[in-house]
Design brief:
Order of helices and strands: EEEHEHEEEHEHEHEHEHHHH
Strand order of the largest sheet: 3-4-5-8-9-10-11
Shape: globular
CATH topology: TIM Barrel
Oligomer: single chain
Helix content: 25-40%
Number of helices: 10
Bound molecules: NADP nicotinamide-adenine-dinucleotide phosphate
Distance between the termini: 30 Å
CATH architecture: Alpha-Beta Barrel
Length: 290
């Protein structure tokens, strides 16, 4: 499978996102613990060298499962996490952007995963003006400065930024020399196209979240789109694979981290790398994308 640079690492274009491992709503233990462990083990067995996780998935559940399933980790496995959020008791997502919170977030990930350095950590921006009053927001400059300090101390190899606007990505490139951007992007949601282009021009990996439209009930699912299903049927693939193959073909700096709680879906997602879409397939898919 092709690779792309994630900072100093060359990783396969298809990795694995761990957000579906915990229970419903990304809270608590998995629906089926054995299956969750099997997903991680199978991913490693099939050569996955890039896992995206977060301490706040569960919270604590995803990292604990990854460690139980895969420790000691293969030498080439790049573990990527994120900081900037916490969970409340009801599963709400709470901003935790203060420098000391970013630092403890990195340290919690290192401890729970049992490693001394994370391959990359995304600064997950939660303090959007629409959700947090100005006096509770932390200047991006101060957040990036803490991430740079953590990198200088060797706790993280690369810095990423997530749910960021173009201006925030530009600031992060300038101030912190980021290695990846993690924003929502899929065939059905291309609102972030300009940030993807910026990353493409700068040789920065772009790891779209919600590549299939997420597990959340209200967002459109790529695999249920009529054009996706028509192309899948014509080429003898599964619809989810067509959505992932479109992303792979779209820009070479896209690194996939589809999330799943099922071994069967994991195997399908990894096999999407073997699918070549024709220019006609791509045109048909893109004309259907809204
Ligand atoms: N930075 C951020 O703010 C942020 C936000 C969200 C996610 N993320 C990261 O991005 C990763 C991907 O996003 P996501 O997991 O939320 O959404 P996603 O990958 O778009 O979709 C996950 C959903 O698709 C289903 N699915 C997966 N493979 C399938 C297949 N082959 N056929 C049919 N259905 C399939 C999963 O169900 P099953 O479990 O039944 O397979 C789940 O409901 C996450 O795992 C996480 O690591 C980051």
């Amino acid at each position: 499978m092709d690779t792309y640079a994630l900072g100093s690492y060359a990783v396969h274009r298809i990795g694995f996102g761990a957000m579906q491992l915990p229970g419903r709503g990304v809270m608590g233990p998995p629906r089926d613990r054995d299956e969750a462990l099997a997903v991680v083990r199978r991913a490693i067995e099939l050569g996955v060298d890039h896992i995206d996780t977060a301490q706040y998935y569960g919270p604590d559940v995803a990292n604990e499962l990854i460690r139980e399933a895969a420790y000691p980790y293969p030498e080439n496995l790049v573990l990527v996490s994120k900081v900037g959020a916490f969970r409340d008791e009801k599963g709400g997502w709470i901003p935790g952007q203060r420098p000391e919170q970013l630092r403890s977030g990195v340290e919690d990930n290192l401890r729970s995963l049992g490693i001394e350095r994370l391959g990359a950590v995304n600064l997950r921006l939660m303090d959007h003006p629409s959700t947090l009053p100005a006096d509770q927001r932390v200047a991006l400059e101060d957040q990036l400065a803490e991430m740079v300090a953590l990198r200088e101390e060797g706790k993280i190899a690369g810095i990423g930024i997530s749910t960021a606007t173009r201006a925030q990505v530009e600031q992060a490139i300038e101030q912190a020399g980021i290695v990846c951007v993690q924003n929502a992007f899929s065939l059905l949601d291309q609102k972030d196209a300009d940030v993807l282009e910026l990353c493409h021009e700068r040789g920065i990996a772009y790891t779209p979240f919600f590549p299939l439209g997420s597990a959340f009930p209200n967002s459109p699912k790529v695999q249920r789109n009529a054009a996706v299903q028509a192309v899948a049927e014509r080429i003898g693939a599964m619809p989810a694979q067509v959505g992932l193959a479109w992303l792979l073909a779209h820009r070479d700096n896209i690194l996939l981290i589809p999330g799943t709680s099922r071994v069967g879906h994991l195997e399908q997602n990894l096999a999407a790398g073997e699918i070549t879409l024709s220019p006609e397939d791509i045109a048909e898919l893109e004309s259907a994308a809204v």
